[in-house]
Amino acid sequence: MTETPSQTVGPFLTLGLAWRDGHLAVPLGTPGACWVSGVLRDGAGEPVTDGLVETWQVEPEAFGRAATDAHGRYAIHTVKPGAVDGQAPHIDISVFARGLLDRVVTRLYFPDESAANAADPLLAAVGPERAGTLVARQSGADLVLDIHLRGPHETVFLTL
Q1: Helix (H) or strand (E) holding 40
Q2: Bridge-partner residues for 135, per DSSP?
Q3: Spatial contact of 67 and 52, defined as CB atoms under 8 Å apart
Q4: What domains lie within the chain, and their CATH numbers?
C-alpha cells in the first residue's frame, strides 16, 4: 500500500478559508483591544501575498483569521490575553502559505511583559537570540510581529 502524496496548502487560500470579518477576533470598540499586524515573508525576504494568518488565545478566548494583502501584510483586531499555566501572556499563530505542506505554528509575546517573558518556559527554551522573533514590537497602541518563514531572520516555529 502506498501513501497519498502531500499537497501544499496554497495558493488558493481565498477559496473558503478567508471570511469577511475574520480579522476581528473581537469586535471593534472592545475595551483594551488593539491591532496585531505584520508582514509575512518568505525565505528570500519577499512578502508572501497569498498567505493566511490565524490567531487564537485563551483568557479571553478569541480567534481571528486574515489573508495577507498585496504587500504581505496581515492585521487582526484582538485583546491581550492573560497568563495561563505558568506561561507569559501570548497569542498562538498559525500560518498557511504556498509551498508549505502543513501550517506552521508560532507565538506572539507582548513587549510590556518582561518579567513574565523571562519566566516563560518556551522563551527560555529557544534562548535570547531567537526569542526576539516571538516578541512583538509596540507601535502606538498596536503590536507588530513580522513573520519570516525561512532565512536569516526566520521566526521560531513550534513542533506540534
Answers
A1: strand 33-41
A2: 109
A3: yes
A4: 33-148 (2.60.130.10)
Residue 132: Cβ within 10 Å count: 15
pTM of the full predicted structure? Answer: 0.89
* DSSP-derived 3-state class of residue 38: strand
Distant-in-sequence contacts of 41-46, Cβ < 8 A, 24+ apart: 41/72, 41/146, 41/147, 41/148, 41/149, 41/151, 41/153, 42/97, 42/99, 42/149, 42/150, 42/151, 43/148, 43/149, 43/150, 43/151, 43/154, 44/151, 45/148, 45/151, 45/153, 46/72
What is the model's pLDDT at position 137? 97
Residue 160 has a pLDDT of 74
Please name the amino acid found at residue 157. F
Residue 72, classified by CB atoms within 10 Å of its CB into exposed (0-12), middle (13-18) or buried (19+), is buried
Length of the chain: 160
Mark the ranges of the chain whose per-residue pLDDT is less than 50: none
Residues 39, 47: Cα–Cα separation, whole Å: 7
CA distance linking residue 97 with residue 125, whole number of Å: 27
What pLDDT score does 139 carry?
Answer: 97
